[in-house]
Structure formats: structure tokens, C-alpha cells
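Minutes, methods subgroup
Present: GH (chair), OT, SY

1. OT presented the first of two proteins processed in the latest run. Sequence and C-alpha cells recorded below as shown on screen.
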Amino acid sequence: MSKIVKEHITFKRGIEPKQAMNIGMTNTIEDWLKKFSVTRYHINSDLTIDVDRDVDFRNPQEHFSKFPDYIQFNKVEGYFSLVNIGLTTLKGCPKYVKRQFCCNMNKLMTLDYCPEEVGMFICNDNPGAFTVDDVKSRCKVNDYIEVVKDQEII
């Protein structure tokens, strides 16, 4: 005789049940990546994104102040460019960028959520007065760091 097990599933208010269970999230992530021409990627089981080549968001047709909550890059084997897109936060950026991480000309006041390790770190023309020490305190940089302070490259 089989035993009937009752499951009780609770959902946060305001979140669609499918979203709460991550049903369809892979398709949602793929649609967003396609919209911004990101190719050669792999979506991991934790829904983070690994990319085998460069990721370039420079001057997209659609600017955005932050990545959608469902976008979280993990590893990028090329460069990761976020030049002049209106970002106010680096949340969603990869943990690792093999080559260059570039976040010039945005609206960044903090380097929170920046990658943990990069080849080069370039962060010019943001309202936050970032220094080389700010970058070094948050990120292992294997090559060089470029920040502009009062129009001088440090």
C-alpha cells in the first residue's frame, strides 16, 4: 500500500510560483543573453553563467542601471566590458575575468560586487573616487589597474 505524502510549498508574496522554483529561468537567462549578443556560454546548475569568449556591453542600444536579478556571471574567459551603459552597481558581474574587466563611464559609487580576480582592471570616469588601493582591496589583479582620479591615470 502506498503512502500519500502531503507537501507544503510556500512562496514569497509577489513572486510567481514558476519563478520561485526556477522553472523557465534557463530560458529567461538565454533570452536576455541573446538580446545582448552574448554567445558561447554555459548556464551552470546554480544558474550562474560561464562564457568562453569576450562579453561586450559597450554602448548597447538599451542602457541599464543594473543587471536583472536572474543574471549572475561566474567566469569569463575573455574580456568583460561595461563601458558607458549607465550602471549604478556591479551586482551580477563575473567572479573571474581572464583578460580585462572594464567599467568606464558609468554611475558607479562603489566597487561592491566587482570580480574577485581579473587580468586587468580598468575603471575610469565614474562618480566614485576609486583608487588603486580600492581595487586591490576587493580584487586580485594579475596585470595592471587603471583608474582616473582628477583626470590623471594612476
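2. SY then presented the second protein from the same run.
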Amino acid sequence: MSEHKINIEWSRQGVFSHEGFDRNHQIQFHSDVSLTAAGANNPSAADPEQMLAAALSSCHMQTFLVLASKKRLQVESYQDNAVAILSQREDGKFYVSKITLNPKVEFSGDKIPDRETLENMHHKSHDHCFVANSISCEMEVNIQK
């Protein structure tokens, strides 16, 4: 077992009321690593839905890279444009209903995996990704060329 700690800090900026307030806050990951976060769809900061998609995408990518290295494949780059979909349940509560990963992987060298091998690697990456194993929303992987 391992612990992964963060620190969140928020303080009032301007008016705080039921009609609205500034949602910007800082998330400290390590002494020199922090991120400005805010509520959904704030163009100046990351929102929780984006961070959930980022956590899943990052975990999936790292698992994929481990699998590729064990297969002695030469990965040149990995890019993903992940999307989290926020939906509303019948009881009115909101939740992330689906996260779609759109990974594009560039390989070099003598061993370039075919489509079936890539699909199997992404399937195995999903099965072994601890973030994927921790969330209940639907997840889809659309392999990009």
C-alpha cells in the first residue's frame, strides 16, 4: 500500500455568497509542484472533471509504456486528447458518466506493432491501470493513427 497526498488551499477573493464566489484554488502536489484549479469550464484553471480525465489518461499511458518497454518496442511519442463527459442522473445529481481516451502512439525501429497488438496492449493497459480500476464510469479507448 502507498499514500499519495495533496494539499488544497482556497481563500475568499471578493464576494462570497449563494449567488456566486471565486472558485479558484491551489492544489499542491509536492513542494515545487502546484496547479491552479477552479470550478467546471473555467478557462483559466483545471476543473475536477479535467483532472479526473487527466489522472485516467496518465495512468493508462504509463501502463502502456511499461508494456511497450517489456515488448522491446521503441516508443517515440504518446499523445492523448481525453474527454470526460459530465451527465445528470434522474435524481438530479451530476456525475462523470464516461471518459474517452484517444491515444496516438508513434513507434520507431524494427518492431512496429500492428493494429491487433495495439488493441491488445491498450486493453491490457486498461485492465492494469489502478485509476481505471478505481472509477465506475464508462471508459472508451479510441486508438488514433
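Chair's summary of item 2: The first strand starts at residue 7 and ends at 9.
Next meeting: continue with the remaining queue.
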